[in-house]
Structure formats: structure tokens, C-alpha cells
Design a protein that fits this description.
Aldehyde Dehydrogenase, Chain A, domain 2; 7-stranded mixed beta sheet; single chain; Aldehyde Dehydrogenase, Chain A, domain 1; 2 domains; 15 helices; alpha/beta; 6-stranded mixed beta sheet
Amino acid sequence: MSQLPAYAEIKGLTKTIKVPTGLFINNQFVSSVDSSETIEAVNPVTEEVLASISAGSVQDIDVAVAAARKTFNTTWGKNITGFERARLLHKLADLIERDAQELAELECLNNGKPVKVARDFDIGDSIQCIRYYAGWADKIVGQTVEVHNKAKLAFTQHEPIGVCGQIIPWNYPINMYVAPALAASCTIVMKPSELTPLTALKLSELVVEAGQVPSFFPPGVVNTIPSLGSVGGAALSAHLDVDKVAFTGSTVTGRKIMEAAAKSNLKKVSLELGGKSPHLIFESADLEQAACWAALGILYNSGQDCTAGSRVYVQESVYDKFMGILLSKVKETVVGDGLSDETAAGPLVSKVQYDRVWGFIESGKQEGATVVIGGEKRTTKGYFCDPTIFTNIRPDMKIVKEEIFGPVLSVGKFKTEEEAIALANDTTYGLGAGLHSSNASQCMRVSSALEAGTVWVNQYNMLANNVPFGGKKQSGIGRELGSYALEEYTSVKAVHWNFGEKGSWPL
């Protein structure tokens, strides 16, 4: 079996970044046990290969799960205090903060997003998320329940669920959201996307560093196995010794994961899936602000966002004025190489995603929608897609119904509040929704009526680590973030304690 070099050297802005090329198991980077297959990490700006990474096999997943199980049963799980877990999580957050610039450059090169966005938003949010859950690690408590004061009581224990498979998406590779699992004392086998494995491997190095004396992450707490989704993701979903799988990605893949979980050991599943999120602009709104948020809603991360506000509906009385402001905002957006400080949005992540998005754009044209900006391919290298806005849309159009995952916006009109709500809810998805209005009563009515797990009022696409996030309908099940996320990684045990009641038989 041919061996890869231990590290790939990748040129960033500030220095050459060394990235491990092996699989991360038991705090060591190792070769596959049975495969010489590799994953090629590509720069979406240049279309050139950055590095070749070991591709994990089904057998590698077995080894990683066995390592995670052994650690859960011996040095993690119920064998470590919440205080110790908190200390390790804080140390990991400190190391990520220390290396934020380098991680951002690596993310830019592999994913395409601008360095400043990766550093100040993705990585900054990840640091806050880890620190937030570090604060929870010693506060996961049960209840004492009165049954009969003179004879018996009951109490609950919130126990770690066990070994967790974390299947990470390519659009936010560094936002691992493993912090609640670690805070709850679970062990992890992480499968990063085959498109963006580099930052996950680099973060695995920091797990080792965070575990140096006097504190330590025991080997096997976090394991990272880059692999194809059809290999590693499928193996985790069907594994009989995995207790929970968390997945972020498409609804189609989410269904497969649920099916595999059901057919194997009925493992717990949380799914953060697709969206076709509506964004309503009422006539009383601050149109300047509404246009800013609408632009951010569809252009942030080049539209590669599950909650992208890809359907904007505007009240007829302010439609023309709003569109003028929105177009001026979109025209100011610089789409280019994320290594430049001027860039607000980078390329799409891959050739496959590029072809998919352009397929939707051509579909919109063919079905009769009007392109008011964008819609033309560049002739230079890179998987770039400039912001594209369609008007004169119909509810049956493909660009209106299906998730595109690119900077493509459909804009429609409505007359009444009731019509706006009906248009917004006319989707199989239910991840996010937004509305803009200066009428407080309207804000309450509409936010209550919108069928989405998250509703933004007079803003869009802003998350907070202490607020739960997740979807309805075909956008998924379970919640990330906030105290609610801890429920995904704990199992509640009820203990009934009799200290005074005498039993008799027969009854």
C-alpha cells in the first residue's frame, strides 16, 4: 500500500500551512487500515489540487468507533467531571483563537469563502460556541421528583448518550458544533465533507495540543475520518455501536441516514437539512435596512447556506422602491478571491456545485422568469457565480420551489398580509424565514404564522449560540445550539427509590 507524506504544505497568506494527511484516531494521525484511496482537496478559485488526503474506509470507521467506545467506557463518559470537560473545552477555544488567521486562510483556500468572513464569523462563532458549552459542562443536572414524602422519591440523571457520529457539511467546515457533544461527555467520530477536509484535520491537531499536561483530552474522545459520504457517512449511519448521528446537509441524504439508523440499532438522529426560506418585506418596513438584510440573506457565503433567504416577497406598494435599493446593494458586492480584503463573497465550492447552480439559472430563464442582474458566466478560471436576481416568478418554477444553494434570488410581490403568509409557507421546507415591518402587531402575527424553526424579524440569518436552531417539515429534526442541543446528546434515566413502602403479594 502506498503511503502519503505525513503532511501537505499549503501556501497561505502569512505562511506555509502544514496539514496532516492521515486519519485521526486515538490522538494520532494514521494510515487507512485497508485502503490507499485519497481525497483531493481543490482550491475553487484556481481549480488546482491543494493536497491529497487519506480517504477513510468502512473498516477505518470501525476502528474509530471502537476507539471512541473504549474511551467512553474508561476515561470519558461517566468517568470525568464536568469541571474537567469545561477546562479542556476552554483550552481548545483558546488554541483556535490563537490560530484563527491560519485556519481562516486554510478555509479560504479549500472552501473559497473570504478570509475575513472565515476568521471573523465562522471561526469567531466557533470559539464562542465552544466557550458557551464549556459553561454548560458542569451544569447538566436532573430533577428530584416528589412521589411520596414519607415513603419514596424519584430522581433523574442526564447521562451522555455515548458514541456520536458527526457528519459535517462543506459550507461551514469549521463550525463543527461538536461542543455540545463534548460538554455532555460523549465521544465523537467526525466525518468532514470530502470537499473540505483540511480545517477538520488541522483542528484535530489542536485537540492533541489542548490535551497536553496538566489537562488532557484522552485519546479517542475526538476522531476524524475524512471519507466519501457514501462510505464514511453511510457506515456511521448504519453502525451498530454508534449511539447517535448528527448530520447537516441535503434532505435527500438526511432521509438515507434516518433509514439506515432505523434499520440498524435505532440510533438517535438529529438532522439539519435544506431550506427554501422566504423573506417578506411589508410596506411599513425600513426599506434601506430590509434591502441590506435581503442582500446578506442570499449573498452571504455565496448563497451556500441552508437558511439562505432565496425567496423575497415584497408588498406591491413598495416593490419598485425596494428593488431599486436592493439592486444598488447587490451591485456593490465584490465576488472574487477570498484572499483579498476587498472580497465579500468567493466562488462556489466545487465544479459539481457550480454546474448545479448554473443549471438552475438556465432553468429560470427557460421557464420565463426575468433576470434583472447577473445570469452570465465568467470566462476566467474559478467556480464563480455572480449574484443573480429573477423577477416575474411563478410558484411552480424550479427556481422558486427547489433549493439552489447559490447566490440566486427569486423576487415576487404580494398585496395582503394573508397572501404573504400563504406564499411564504408554500414550501416543503421549514428551516428559516424573515420579515420586515415597523408594525409590532404585524410582526407578532406573521412570525407566529410562518412555518419555520427560526424566524427573523427586521434582520436575517443571524444566529446566537444560546438560541436553539433547527427546522420543521423537510428541513430536519432536532436542535443545535442553546441548552436544547444538550438534549440531543443526553439520555434521561429515572431512578425510583423506595425507602418506606412495604410490598405485598399477591395483590
